[in-house]
Amino acid sequence: MSESTIVVDHVHKRYGDTVAVDDISLRVEPGEVLGVLGANGAGKTTTVEMIAGLRVPDRGSVSVLGLDPRRDRAALSQVLGVQLQQSYLHGALTVAELVGLYRTFYPDPRPADELLDLVDLREQHRTRFEKLSGGQQQRLSIALALAGRPKVVILDELTTGLDPRARRRMWSAVESLRDETVVLVSHAMDEVERLCDRVALLDAGRVIALDTPAGIVDRACAATLEDAFVALTGREPEYEEDAA
């Protein structure tokens, strides 16, 4: 049996008096798309930021392809692509300039045109980042995360703020990542059901269910994943309005 691509072992993270992640353990297998689902404040983003090496666990350990996200940051950056909710990119640079810059970070990057087509931004290639809509900025951040042909991809709220057409385009982009291991943080039930092999359902910093989407529905004796979410967490799922 192949080794797990990502191993999260009894990880804790606290901010002051608030426990964001409380003894989470996860394994993500090669080629798997793992969905991370939970209400706001459930610990989703903190968990994936620790996997990416952007935050340090207070206790526990994380391994990605056998690498420590903090100690082996340079090596990990060559095999890990990360798209987070907030993009911190130079506003004066154009789409083409940002794609060109990110491609220089890797020995065998994806062609620029392929990246722009993947996220449907070819027509905006001369547009400065600060002039893009929120949805276009989100799509660009996804292209940049995929620039280096990563073996592991973290996508945090992949389609937040995107219109229905753009959402479907992003789903197709994820489905094209057939050999990569993907961690997908999402609040969108339809997205999770379509894209994810398994789902980790988080509540109050803990994993309360880990199964296929259908398995979680069965466990909750529910009709849909949304009904299962409500039954298992006691919370209503959040929804975002489209922002192109």
UniProtKB/TrEMBL annotation:
It is found in: Cell membrane. GO terms for biological process: response to antibiotic. One of its GO terms (molecular function) is ATP binding. The keyword rRNA-binding does not apply. InterPro entries: AAA+_ATPase, ABC_transporter-like_ATP-bd, ABC_transporter-like_CS, ABC_transporter_ATP-binding, P-loop_NTPase. The keyword NAD does not apply. Residues 6-229 form the ABC transporter domain. This is ABC-2 type transport system ATP-binding protein. GO terms for cellular component: plasma membrane. It comes from Jiangella alba. Keywords: Antibiotic resistance, ATP-binding, Nucleotide-binding, Transport. It is a peripheral membrane protein.
